[in-house]
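For this section, I looked closely at the sequence of one protein beside the tokens encoding its backbone, which the following lines show:
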Amino acid sequence: MIRELAHFRYQLRKFLCFSERAARGAGVTPQQHQLMLGVAGFTGRGSANITELAEFLQERHNAVVELVSRASRAGLVRKKASVHDRRVVCVELTPRGRAILARLSTLHRKELQGIQGQREAATILQLD
């Protein structure tokens, strides 16, 4: 059990390091990449409010407000007041943010497929 947990943790760290390098290679910070992922996919609406993003990112509300502001200045997201409650800020991706996220998602999907192939090979080796 401990060996499997250690291996899982190792694979997780390798994937996270890959993800951070990929984000920087695309011209965004790893935090901005995670923000864009949350905006696009967490709620299923293609947008999210600050509270939802704080939950997705597991960060404090104030930290997410600042992250959204920096991402907005970088042209990755746009903020607008909710039509239902003007106190709520909704965040959505800009065309630039969508394009960057699409490229990063393709890279991440390929990396995950490689990890899956390695797992399958390791399982086969254990069976022999």
Q: What stands out?
A: The chain has one domain: 2-127.
